[in-house]
Amino acid sequence: MSTTLRRTLARALILVGAVVTSSTLALPADAMTAQTRERVVRIAASKAGTPYRYGATGPRAFDCSGYTRWVFRKVGRYLPRTSSAQARATRHVRRSQRHRGDLVFFRSGGHVYHVGIYAGRGRIWHAPRSGERVHRERIWTRSVSYGRVR
Questions:
Q1: pLDDT of residue 130
Q2: Quick check: is 126 catalytic?
Q3: pLDDT above 90 for 36
Q4: Which of 1, 26, 72, 147 is most open to solvent, judged by the fewest CB atoms within 10 Å of its CB?
Q5: Strand order in the sheet with 91-93
Q6: pLDDT tens digit string along 126-144?
Q7: CATH code of the domain occupying 30-148
Q8: H or E element, residue 64
Q9: pLDDT band for position 22 (cuts 50, 70, 90)
Q10: Choice among 92, 99, 111, 126 that is catalytic
Q11: pTM value?
């Protein structure tokens, strides 16, 4: 192999290495790690059995958005108070890209009416409605979108 070809290949490898190291492997400064997402799910599960109460923000009772807000606050992330405001504050991801710890927004007629925390395998942790308690449940509709907290 000629010296010129070796130098060209060496430069190309250095360039590829620099691109991979600086962009592909680096997370944005505000991105949640896999460990943080798992912590979100553990914290969400720790409140199983807590009663629903409209307008409640925890820790003894929750409504749906008060619950998600409280859980994310425990990992140092701020979410606005209502489910529709939380939907606007997250980075939306496709169903195929959802991860445990992402938010699940339930929609009807173009507006968000409920929010939960994705638990994996098509299930969410949520504070559903009056008379019920925080629990894990299968997602019951396809009228949902997913949001990733930054």
A1: 97
A2: yes
A3: yes
A4: 1
A5: 91-93, 144-148, 103-108, 111-120, 123-126, 135-138
A6: 999 999 999 999 999 999 9
A7: 3.90.1720.10
A8: helix 64-73
A9: very low
A10: 126
A11: 0.81
Mean pLDDT of the chain: 88
No. of helices (H) and no. of strands (E), the chain: 4, 6
Please identify which of the residues 92, 99, 114, 135 carries the catalytic annotation. Answer: 114
Q: What angle do CA 122, 82, 109 make, to 5 degrees?
A: 65
Whether 53 contacts 63, CB under 8 Å? yes
User: Strands, E, within the chain: which ranges?
Assistant: 91-93, 103-108, 111-120, 123-126, 135-138, 144-148
Q: Is residue 90 within 8 Å of residue 40, measured between CB atoms?
A: no
90: tokens are 């997250």
Q: Is 111 a catalytic residue?
A: no
Q: Is 135 a catalytic residue?
A: no
Q: Which residue do the tokens 């710890």 mark?
A: 101
Query: 98: closest CA among 73, 72, 123?
Result: 123
Q: Quick one: DSSP state of residue 145?
A: E
pLDDT digit string, tens, across residues 70-91:
999 999 999 999 999 999 999 9
pLDDT of residue 142: 96
The residues spanned by each domain of the chain are 30-148
